Write the structure tokens for this entry.
Amino acid sequence: QVQLVESGGGLVQPGGSLKLSCAAPGSIVVAHAMSWYRQTPGNDRDLVATITNSGRTEYVDSVKGRFTISFNNAKDTVYLQMNNLKPDDTAVYYCNGAFGSDYAPGLWGQGTQVTVSS
């Protein structure tokens, strides 16, 4: 099963930017789609953005125009560029995807904490 590793989180002021990375060596380049999710304490993990292997992207309304999902096949990595961050974006961010012939998800990683605060 695919193991995913997220990185790039941190503390940023409102209006600031962060770029998250998700690595899964040998797997992202063959995934059908990859997504970023976020979770706050006591709440479910919510879908934030998705990119298909053809490059089509989708975003939840609250991040449209501010977040950009992309992948680098050469580095076998998926990114989430987050601009104009707001306190409501504070969460643990996770990545996952649809892998293999059965479009199965990978193992959830530890996630990366994003905190937006002044």
Summary: The chain is about 0% helix and 45% strand. The longest strand covers residues 91-98. The chain has a mean pLDDT of 93. The two ends are 39 Å apart (CA to CA).
